[in-house]
Design brief:
This protein is of the alpha+beta class and 494 residues long. The strands form two sheets. A five-stranded antiparallel sheet has the order 6-3-4-5-7, with no helix packed on it. It has a three-stranded antiparallel sheet with strand order 1-2-8.
């Protein structure tokens, strides 16, 4: 068998085309088998190796087969003889002699063809599986998608594969995604891709196919408490607390609650300027009776009033960075201190941390060096008794924060990507709940803060400051009384 196989390959190597084709096909086949075996054994798990194994090797294998065919056709044309005559000349009469089940060379050709088909089908299947993996999405084009992949890994959706949101179901969606991926790979190879990656993504799957698989509307969440801790930029890093009772759901007949907009009883459509979903041109609401109401932006110039997108509001209109979430420098430090990653007792660590994170250095290495030098010098010169182990740990966390959020090569810095969930980091809720959007009677959409949450503390030293007994000498007693009563009444009405 070995002799027949070697003779068969020699028979195909009739000229330069054939020799190159045989070498390519054979070497790519063997290399694929070796690397795939190592992958199954857990020797490596690397997206770049995946590109080589599932894209490069099969492509070169097929190219090798094509070259073999081209070489044989050229040889046949030059010799002016039949395929049988040429086979007898190349492999000998014994291998080419016809038998009951076919000649040896025919059986060899049939067997190798079957192996080739199995290999191509298997490699293609593995390639599709690999290209659907989150590692491929984030690491194969690391310079482009690296920042998004880092943010994804730190999100609450880190175990949800990228394709669950970015690729729809069915053959047409699969083909469309691969065509789009090919186009993006061409842009990457030609260095013509956008920096930063443009948002919002307009070809995401509908939220009822993605978000609502887990966060289904029929699931009633009621209310939830949200505790936010901010630290002042003083020596003691004094904590200030904001506590909100979020009105997550809306009950029937009550026009409050964060998720009123996507309730099965309501429909909200809108149009925005430049498809960016930040400047709203008009809003139209429809209730379960079919009654509609339209709000037009009275402040937009006529040149901006042209409709660019008539969109049905869904989850991602507010939760536009639910997975690829880039934080602000202040929020990152506050979170690190709250979780104990940075020692709360390090004097002025909030202030100094912000100072080093808001640098304008051009490379990450320069920024890492600056963070280490500045923080080390500050504490060694002004607080020499502070444990350097705690300082070193703070430096490491600050560098990690910088690495996750700042990407000079993609022109991503603090606040490059706006987050519309809320209204602290962008206009958010007030894109629509604004006095500039009015109906035919001149009435604007309600924009009272308590529509979506009861405020139990707002940057106070006590996390439940507004629920405490009222002090007549409190300068903001009226505000405290109003918020306290609102919280009590909202529970009674719900």
């Amino acid at each position: 068998m070995k002799r027949i196989y070697i003779n068969f390959l020699r028979g195909l190597s009739v000229n330069l085309y054939g020799k190159i084709g045989v070498i390519l096909a054979t070497s790519m086949f063997l290399s694929f088998i070796v690397l795939e075996t190592l992958s199954f054994m857990g020797v490596y798990n690397n997206a770049y190796m995946g590109l080589i194994t599932y894209l490069a090797f099969p492509s070169l294998f097929i190219l090798g087969l094509i070259l073999v065919v081209i070489g044989w056709k050229k040889f046949q044309k030059q010799q002016g003889r039949s395929t049988r005559e040429l086979l007898i000349q190349r492999v000998g009469t014994g291998e080419a002699r016809a038998k009951l089940m076919g000649s040896r060379v025919f059986l060899m050709f049939l067997g190798l063809s079957a192996v080739n088909v199995i290999f191509v089908v298997g490699a293609s299947s593995r390639m599709l599986h690999f290209m659907d993996s989150s590692e491929f999405c984030g690491m194969a084009c690391h310079s482009i998608m690296g920042p998004e992949y880092l943010a994804y890994q730190s999100s609450s959706h880190a175990r949800v594969p990228c394709v669950e949101c970015h690729v729809g179901h069915g053959i047409s969606a699969l083909i469309e995604s691969k065509v789009a991926g090919t186009r993006q790979m061409i842009k990457a190879s030609m260095n013509t891709y956008n920096r930063p990656v443009q948002t919002p993504v307009h070809n995401l799957r509908p939220s009822n196919e993605t978000c609502e698989k887990c966060h289904w509307p029929e699931k009633y969440y009621g209310r939830t408490l949200k505790h936010i801790v901010h630290y002042e930029q003083n020596e003691k890093n004094t904590p200030l607390y904001t506590t909100l009772s979020l009105k997550v759901d809306a009950q029937a007949g009550i026009k409050t609650g964060i998720h009123w907009h996507i309730s099965k009883d309501n429909e909200v459509r809108y149009a925005s300027v430049d498809n960016q979903r930040e400047q709203i041109i008009w809003i139209e609401t429809k209730d379960k009776t079919g009654t509609t109401k339209r709000y037009q932006n009275k402040l937009l110039d006529a040149s901006l009033q042209q409709q660019t997108e008539n969109r049905l509001m869904d989850c991602v209109d507010c939760h536009n960075r639910a997975t690829h979430h880039f934080q602000s420098a202040e929020d990152e430090i506050d979170q690190a201190i709250k979780q104990g990653q940075i020692d709360h007792n390090l004097p002025f660590i909030k202030r100094e941390g912000l100072a080093v994170l808001n640098n304008n250095l051009t490379t990450k290495q320069q920024a890492f060096d600056f963070i280490e030098t500045h923080i080390t010098n500050f504490y060694s010169q002004k607080y020499s008794t502070v444990s350097m182990k705690r300082v070193d740990e703070a430096i490491r966390i600050l560098q990690k924060i910088y690495n996750r959020n700042i990407h000079p090569e993609m022109k991503i810095t603090w606040n490059t990507y706006v987050d519309h969930s809320g209204h602290k980091k962008s206009t958010g809720c007030f894109r629509c709940h604004s006095e500039s959007l009015v109906d035919e009677n001149g009435e604007h959409l309600a924009n009272d803060c308590t529509m979506c949450h009861s405020i139990l503390a707002d940057s106070e030293s006590d996390p439940f400051a507004y629920l405490n007994p009222l002090d007549p000498n409190e300068p903001e007693m009226k505000k405290h009384l109003y918020l306290q009563e609102e919280f009590k009444n909202s529970y009674q009405s719900h």
